[in-house]
């Protein structure tokens, strides 16, 4: 398992939007078929897909 972490200073949100995944999407473009799945953590309570291979998860699921 590989991990890429990114955090903006003091930035947290209860929901995740497509704009929150811009960096991850650029990374996916570089990896191509080698990329399997991405996860974006937030402070909310819902789990859901953002794209076919990117899901939003509450940090509490860790």
Question: Topology, pairings included?
Answer:
Blueprint: H1 22-31, E1 38-42, E2 48-51, E3 54-58
Structural category is alpha+beta
Low-confidence stretches at least 5 residues in length (pLDDT < 50)? none
Distance between the termini: 15 Å
Rg over alpha carbons = 12 Å
**Tally of helical segments:** 1
- Morphology: elongated
Mean pLDDT across all amino acids: 79
Task: Give a short account of the largest sheet.
Answer: 3 strands, mixed
H/E topology pattern = HEEE
Number of strands: 3
| Count of discrete structural domains | 1
State the share of residues found in helices, binned by percent: 10-25%
**What spatial order of strands do you see in the largest sheet?**
1-3-2
Amount of beta strand: 15-25%
Question: Which terms would index this structure?
Answer:
single chain; 62 residues; alpha+beta; three-stranded mixed sheet; 1 helix; elongated
Concise description?
The chain is an alpha+beta fold. The protein is 16% helix and 23% strand. The protein has one domain.
Written overview of the protein:
This protein has one domain (18-61). 16% of the residues lie in helices and 23% in strands. The chain has one helix at residues 22-31, and strands spanning 38-42, 48-51, 54-58. A 3-stranded mixed β-sheet has the order 1-3-2, with no helix packed on it. A hairpin with a 2-residue loop joins strand 2 (48-51) and strand 3 (54-58). The longest helix is centred in the middle third of the chain and has 10 residues, at 22-31. The protein starts with 21 loop residues before the first helix and ends with a strand.
């Amino acid at each position: 398992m590989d991990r890429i972490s990114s955090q903006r200073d003091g930035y947290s949100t209860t929901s995740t939007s497509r704009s929150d995944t811009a960096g991850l999407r650029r990374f996916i473009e570089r990896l191509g078929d080698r990329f399997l799945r991405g996860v974006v953590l937030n402070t909310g309570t819902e789990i859901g897909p953002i794209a076919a291979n990117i899901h939003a998860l509450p940090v509490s699921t860790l």
